[in-house]
Amino acid sequence: MARIVGGPVQRRAQGWDGGEDGSESSGGIAAATCVRVYAIIRVSILNYFPASADDSRSAAESLGHTRLQGASATISKQNTMEDPWQECMDYAVTIAKKAGTVVCEALKAEMAVMVKSCPTDLVTETDQKVEKIIISSIKEKFPSHSFIGEESVAAGAGSTLSDNPTWIIDPIDGTTNFVHKFPFVAVSIGFAVNKKLEFGVVYSCVEDKMYTGRKGKGAFCNGQKLQVSGQKDITQSLILTEVGSSRNPDVVKVMFSNMERLLCIPIHGIRAVGTAAVNMCLVATGGADAYYEIGIHCWDMAAAAVIVTEAGGVVIDATGGPFDLMSRRIITASSSVIAERIAKELQIIPLERDDGEKED
Question: Where are the residues of the annotated region Disordered (predicted)?
Fold first, then answer.
């Protein structure tokens, strides 16, 4: 059962303007204060100026409104200084929604399918189109920022993570699902500064579920706060994974051997949705207790890693060490106990890192 608890929408409906993380933000308090002050000014003006003095009263009201606008602008600037990346996150949600609309429309039409690294590593014109929409829109608003995009990398661009604000984008996470019209595809947008993830946005567009996570401010799905299951007993767990695109017999053998070892612990079961980002978000909702995969990329993991941690989960490397965004492997879980137990069972496949650096 998904753990989704009362979010900010309910609180605002009750007249309490708190922050997205459930705390009463200074910006929310100040904005509410401005509204109250404006109401007091307006009532005073209406009482002071007689009805016949329409011009004077209108001018005074206009002055009060102008001062309110100035105060609101000051508050907006203050909020930006307190959280310089909130504007970026808000824009990411807008762009993800726009991109998701393009994806959903494309699902209704015939599509041209191409291959990248191997016959099972698929790409469509929609993948490329959506990535161009996302990157061009963000570049226009934030021209100094950097980008790592799945299709850009496939076309020869680098995937080095620097200290510069960096958008990490998967335009269609679950391309094979998309090609077969299997209804789990997502737009995934992660954002890092100084090589640290700040927020993640995952839009499961067929489901119309917008998952968001902001460092230190919680995780949400369509405005409802998320919480992992908290499960610590691996024998009571449901685990998600994927087998990846490699059809090398030795790699496939390791993938299924890992599943066999986990199933024989025993656990309740293993599921595969076909998109890393949605798998991880399902852990954040409490619908699954863990997810692991070896062989994925930074654009598959970046956004949802923030969402899981902000929902109270843990994210580690498949070796059991600290999470490394460029390592191409991950375990996310409802508790460190389950994450560490999964790591003990996994056989690791050597892979080239996304940043091209050598493994220690």
Answer: 1-27
Active site residues: 150, 170, 172-173, 175, 300
Joined tokens for residue 20: 């997205």
311-314-319 Cα angle (round to 5): 155
Which amino acid is present at 214? Answer: R
Q: Is-contact 32 15, C-beta < 8 A?
A: no
**How far is 10 from 274, CA to CA, in rounded Å?**
33
The answer to the question of whether 173 is labelled as a binding residue is: yes
163 annotated as a binding-site residue: no
pLDDT in tens, the chain (360 residues): 445 454 433 433 333 344 444 444 444 544 555 545 455 545 554 555 454 445 555 554 555 555 545 544 444 455 556 788 999 999 999 999 999 999 999 999 988 899 988 888 899 999 999 999 999 999 999 999 999 999 999 888 888 899 999 999 999 999 999 999 999 999 999 999 999 999 999 999 999 999 999 999 999 999 999 999 999 999 999 999 999 999 999 999 999 999 999 999 999 999 999 999 999 999 999 999 999 999 999 999 999 999 999 999 999 999 999 999 999 999 999 999 999 999 999 999 999 999 988 776
